[in-house]
Amino acid sequence: MFKFNSTLNRLRAIGFIEAISFLLLLGIAMPLKYIWGHPEMVRVVGLIHGILWMIYIGLAYLGQLDYKWSWKTTALLFIASLLPFGPIIADAKLLRKVAKDKNITL
């Protein structure tokens, strides 16, 4: 499904997985904790999501270094990482355009 042959492709893949982990955290783990009193899932999913988020931010920074992105592009990726579905939207609206401009195979 995803290629890991470039920083951009790794960023896209981790962004997708990070977005799904965020949705799992908000949609399943948090209700389990606050409605049904089972906080265990928040610890597990929260840890996984946090690690994926840090990797996403690191890859966004590496992308800036590798592809000479503007700080605006990196800032938009950071903002997208804070929103549900944000990395998926950033992939569709921003990263595909960057790949096309830089002639990177997705």
Protein described:
With 106 residues, the chain is mainly alpha-helical. The chain has one domain. Helix content is 79%, strand content 0%. Helix 1 runs antiparallel to helix 4 and helix 3 (71-81) runs antiparallel to helix 4 (86-102). The N and C termini lie close together (10 Å).
Task: Briefly say what this structure is.
With 106 residues, this protein is mostly helical. The chain has four helices and no strands. It is elongated.
What features would you highlight for this structure?
single chain, 106 residues, mainly alpha, 4 helices
Structural class: mainly alpha
What's the number of helices?
Answer: 4
Low-pLDDT ranges: none
Which range does the strand content fall in?
under 5%
Indicate the mean pLDDT.
Answer: 90
Give the total of domains: 1
Largest beta-sheet characterization:
none
SS elements, strand count: 0
Estimate the helix proportion, in percent.
Answer: over 70%
Which series of helices and strands comes N to C? HHHH
- Termini separation: 10 Å
Shape: elongated
Strand-helix topology:
Blueprint: H1 7-34, H2 40-67, H3 71-81, H4 86-102
Helix pairs in contact: 1-2, 1-4, 2-3, 3-4
